[in-house]
Amino acid sequence: MLMNGLIRLQSCNTEQEVLMKKSLWLVFFSSVALAACATLEYDNTISDLEGEWLQENANPPFKLTFQDGRINAKADCNTLFGGVSLVDGKLISQPLASTMMACEPAGMQRDQRFSTLLSGKPTVTLTDEHLVLDSGDSKLSFKRQP
């Protein structure tokens, strides 16, 4: 009987070990699958933004130019420029330099809002020939220029 009890106990441990191994493999493969989905969500790179973009439905429109990891952003009165990258779907800019032209207060305020958007790590959505920059507080749409 003692022998039968040990055999049953070993058998029980073996079934538990098999179940544990299956559970560990399931957790492992689930983690790999989730990680793969996360990396596919942001498949655009800064080079995908290269070229000229004109703001839609605005008068006057803002103009963006991306080239070699740099941005040139023409606002109402001033132009912002500096290095940028695209990380996890967000536009990350180094401190942007700016021209210092004076203009009407409304234009200066519009320039400031544009500068705040660009330096605030906006989310980038790129579809076909359209680019959307969304900071949560502000959302601007641009169309790629030929």
Entry summary:
The chain is an alpha+beta fold and 146 residues long. It has helices at 2-41, 105-119, and strands at residues 51-55, 63-67, 70-74, 79-87, 90-93, 97-98, 123-127, 130-134, 139-144. 38% of the residues lie in helices and 32% in strands.
Molecular structure report:
Residues 6-11 and 32-42 have low confidence and may be disordered. The chain folds into 2 domains: 1-41; 46-144, Lipocalin (Beta Barrel), CATH 2.40.128. Strands 1, 2, 3, 4, 5, 6, 7, 8 and 9 form a 9-stranded antiparallel beta sheet that branches. Helices cover 38% and strands 32% of the residues. It is of the alpha+beta class and 146 residues long. The chain has helices at 2-41, 105-119; strands at 51-55, 63-67, 70-74, 79-87, 90-93, 97-98, 123-127, 130-134, 139-144.
Instruction: Count the E strands.
Output: 9
| Biggest sheet features | 9 strands, antiparallel
Instruction: Tell me the number of helical segments per DSSP (H or I, 4 or more residues long).
Output: 2
Estimate percent helicity: 25-40%
Structural category is alpha+beta
Structural features:
32% strand, 9 strands, single chain, 146 residues, Lipocalin, alpha+beta, 9-stranded antiparallel beta sheet
Which helices and strands appear, and what pairs or packs with what?
Layout: H1 2-41, E1 51-55, E2 63-67, E3 70-74, E4 79-87, E5 90-93, E6 97-98, H2 105-119, E7 123-127, E8 130-134, E9 139-144
Antiparallel strand pairs: 1-2, 1-9, 2-3, 3-4, 4-5, 4-6, 7-8, 8-9
